Amino acid sequence: MSYKFTQQSNSARSVILQKLKKQVEGADYDKLPAETGFTYPEISFEDQFTHFVQLLRNNQAKVISTSETELMDQVISELKARDISSLLYGADSPYSQLIEQGINQSGEQVELQDYDYQLTDNKDKLFNHTPASITSSNWAIAETGTIVRWPSQNEPRTMSLVPPVHMIIVDANKLYCNFSSLVKDQNWKDNMPTNALLISGPSKTADIQQTLAFGAHGPKELIVFVMNSPTDINL
Amino acid sequence: MSVNQYTPDRTESKYTKSASTFRQNVQRDLANEELRSNFAGAMDYLMDKRKASFPSNDELETLRDQCKLIKQRALVKLPHLLEQLETKLNENGIKVHWAETINDANEIIAQLIESKGGKNIVKGKSMVSEETALNDFLQARDMEILESDMGEYIVQLANEHPSHIIMPAIHQNKKQVADIFAEHIDDFEYTTDVDTLIGEGRRILRDKFSKADVGITGVNFAVAETGTLCLVENEGNGQMSSAVPDMHIAITGIEKVVEYLDDIPPLLSLLTRSATGQAITTYFNMISKPRQPGEKDGPEEVHLVLLDNGRSQAFADEELRQTLQCIRCGACMNHCPVYTRVGGHAYGTVYPGPIGKIISPHQLGLESTKDLPTASSLCGACGEVCPVKIPIPNILLRLRKESVKDTKGGEGELKGAGSNRKATEAAIWKAWSLLHRVPAMYKVSMWFATRFRGLMPSKLGAWTSVRTAPKLAPKTLHERVKARRK
Ligand code: SF4
User: How far apart are alpha carbons B256 and B219 in whole angstroms?
Assistant: First the structure.
């Protein structure tokens, strides 16, 4: 970085901070008014779950109840329905064994691609030769119909962004009532990952005449497989 | 397939980018019926969506109070939070740069890009980069910078500016968008089908994403406690810009910092519901570090540019400081009867509508923006919907006062204060106030006014263009009361 450039930024820094400090010098933080949040009525876990599924569906996500034994049959049938014969997954990720076994045993011609490359040198591959991906997720949020993902070395962030069809596995036992309780309960502030993602449907836009269109830049379709669902949702 | 070269020269643009010709801009845009119907339709839609997303008034008001206090706390602690944010980001491996002016910010960004040898840049939605006119700056240095938010992309193709801070192309209907595509995209098969139009944008932009060496985005919230940059979006272009290229540069105003991670959930909820009536946007992206060893994607370098550009002036006055509570939801413009009729371009500023009227004077000076605070009926709708309870009408009144006040040129005065002061107007008000303070003078002047009422002109400028001139009574009220008592 050029010397001049850093100097300029440093001097801007001290000018800005000085101006601001002059105004709030001696402010007594203890005198700040109390901030009260809204107390939401208690809702049963089943109702939270139903709400979660409903919101995802309103946002055009496909939600399917699944189990370890059903998952891969369902995944394969979704792929076949779309004429997709290749699936990106992350080796050594929470469901990778299940995925590998499922594909091997099915006898279907589905090629499993591992995200075993650096994106920098493989953009064409990810952008143009990866029609679908499957990832795990960390948590879910009922209030907003949201799935939370902390991308990892094995399941990088672009897996849920670039392929046109994204399949994601959600464990209903990891459903939180709202974002606030999740952040507190999982103590995010002491463990923020490189990147945390909240996903609430397929990519969309209403930028042309307020008309909703899906698949703006990210996935056109989001297929959510729910493990341990407390209620029957395949209706 | 190539998108036609887009020219940085905007002097040819349909929309003048100047607030000093506000009155002419308004005449021009009021006469454009298509524009008016585009805005009317969009604002109705956004108002309905917002309303439906707040079924409980109790919840809404509690949240508004809470978020106002969160932002006010962040502002009282602003210099310390900025330092804390910088320390945390540094620990996380993200570099922080400071800029007082838009030129400094652009210069920093250009040099960062050059240090990477970057040529192809994609940008996610960022109003601050509109504020700095970053596109023009980089294009002048032979860099290709492409807007990737669908609305921004359309606006860029048409060589225009966003007319709304959340929905940049809201002034265009689908037919107009199709015309823009036909003019600027080779081999575009004409259609007004929105899915196909978006598909076309997707195809072109995905190609650009995969080839870009630098991605630029804005920031919705920066968390001091953890050193986290938060991006709110529906399309995925913000993620594309921040995750795919090897360098990510985020640019934001110094007021976007909040203290705790726990402050984020209520702010996020209020932001998306106020903006588009969504419980949450499709994506909420929290970035705390560049790519770590062993990780396979994400940028190797992440930079944050913090811009002042007049914000510290607003900060210096406790009333005007509230302007900085803004979370840029756009609700104030959606509910503004003036904005709905004149549209976003008439203001001639980067930020249109009520928030534009109260922030632009700090960025551009009151001289060129002096008409903006007067372009309000003071109906109060903006203040009522603002999620962080900025008393916009009060601030408008305050700016009106600042623009006509007798300036001493001393320290602490707003840039351009007093520029709307007119000698005759000032003299008239001085006389008026004198008359009302001295009863004898008042009496005499009223006697003269009533006796010579025939001399009052029947045309009183704009007032009588749609009204008849008021008439003075033949006798003063005091005289008539006196007569009755006899
Ligand atoms: S002033 Fe208030 S209503 Fe307007 S954009 Fe800012 S936060 Fe939203």
Answer: 8
Structure tokens at B118: 């970057």
| B403 Cα: distance to centroid of ligand 1 (angstroms) | 23
Q: Mark whether B71 and B217 lie in a shared domain.
A: yes
**Which residue has the CA at smallest separation from atom 8 of ligand 1?**
B329
Give the Cα separation of B327 and B314 in Å (integer): 15
CA A72 to chain centre: 21
Domain assignment present for residue B234? The answer is yes
Domains of chain A: 61-227 (3.40.50.10420)
Q: pTM (2 decimals)?
A: 0.93
If asked whether residues B302 and B432 sit together in one domain, one would say: no
Size of interface A-B (CB pairs under 8 A): 270
Does residue B181 sit within a domain? Answer: yes
Residue B486 and residue B483: Cα distance in Å, rounded? 5
Residue B342: φ, ψ to 5°: -90, -20
Same domain, yes or no: B116 and B239: yes
In this structure, the answer to whether residues B304 and B432 fall within a common structural domain is no
Q: Which two tokens stand for residue B14?
A: 């349909």
Does residue B417 lie in a domain region? no
Domain of residue B73: give its range. Answer: 16-312
The string of pLDDT tens digits covering residues B396-442 is 999 999 999 988 777 778 999 999 999 999 999 999 999 999 999 99
A20:B312 CB<8 A: yes
Among the listed residues B422, B229, B266, B252, the one whose alpha carbon sits nearest the alpha carbon of residue B324 = B252
Would the CB atoms of A16 and B312 count as touching at under 8 Å? Answer: yes
For chain B positions 9-38, those within 8 Å of chain A (CB to CB) are 38
Chain B segment 194-253 residues within 8 A of A by beta carbon are 194-195, 197-199, 201-202, 205-207, 209-211, 225-228, 234-237, 239-240, 243-244, 246
Structure tokens at B24: 């002419």
Q: How far is the centre of ligand 1, averaged over its atoms, from the C-alpha of B355 (Å)?
A: 6
Q: What is the pLDDT along chain A (235 residues), one digit of tens a residue?
A: 555 678 889 999 999 999 999 999 999 999 999 999 999 999 999 999 999 999 999 999 999 999 999 999 999 999 999 999 999 999 999 999 999 999 999 888 899 999 999 999 999 999 999 999 999 999 999 999 999 999 999 999 999 999 999 999 999 999 999 999 999 999 999 999 999 999 999 999 999 999 999 999 999 999 999 999 998 887 5
